[in-house]
Amino acid sequence: MKKTNRQMVIKQIINNHDVATQEELLQFLKAEGVEATQATISRDIKEMNLVKTTSSKGTVKYILFQHNKMSDKEKLEQTIGEVVIKLTRVQFMTIIMTIPGNAHVVAALLDSIDFPEMVGTVGGNDTILVISPSEEEAIRMYDYFNKWTSF
């Protein structure tokens, strides 16, 4: 499995479970069908800026360290400018092309924001399909994305 995919699974695991040790993380990964070594997980933890904190239950768990206090919308706008290479709109859908390996990041940011013009997203390796409830709302989404692109 590629590092970006493995790290995406790690992020999902630590967001859904209180993981206190690398060994626990390895067990969760194995349950997801991901084979990795202790050394690999250790590197992933460092690269992903995972830190330990105290959970609401008083136990220790890994979380993603937030370098700054940017809102999800600010992160989305910055990321769009950095990784989006093409935009296309077809009726009520907006298709976003990114640098390979970045579509899941943009899709996750989109999913974290409650855009009334968006019903949902489907993200692959370098393509995101943004589905809107109407053509008019798709036009607004396209215009929003286009405002932040740098191509």
UniProtKB/TrEMBL annotation:
Task: From the record, give the transmembrane residue ranges.
Answer: none
| GO MF terms held by the record | arginine binding; DNA binding; DNA-binding transcription factor activity
**What Gene3D superfamilies would the database entry show?**
3.30.1360.40, Winged helix-like DNA-binding domain superfamily/Winged helix DNA-binding domain
All residue ranges annotated as the Arginine repressor C-terminal domain in the record: 81-146
Q: In which pathway does it act?
A: Amino-acid biosynthesis; L-arginine biosynthesis [regulation]
Q: Which GO terms describe its cellular component?
A: cytoplasm
Compartments, record wording: Cytoplasm
Q: What is its main location?
A: cytoplasm
Positions of the Arginine repressor DNA-binding domain: 1-68
| Biological process (GO), any one | regulation of arginine biosynthetic process
Which keywords, in A-to-Z order, does the entry hold? Answer: Amino-acid biosynthesis, Arginine biosynthesis, Cytoplasm, DNA-binding, Repressor, Transcription, Transcription regulation
Q: Which family does it belong to?
A: Belongs to the ArgR family.
Q: What does this protein do?
A: Regulates arginine biosynthesis genes.
Please report the name of this protein according to its UniProt entry. Arginine repressor
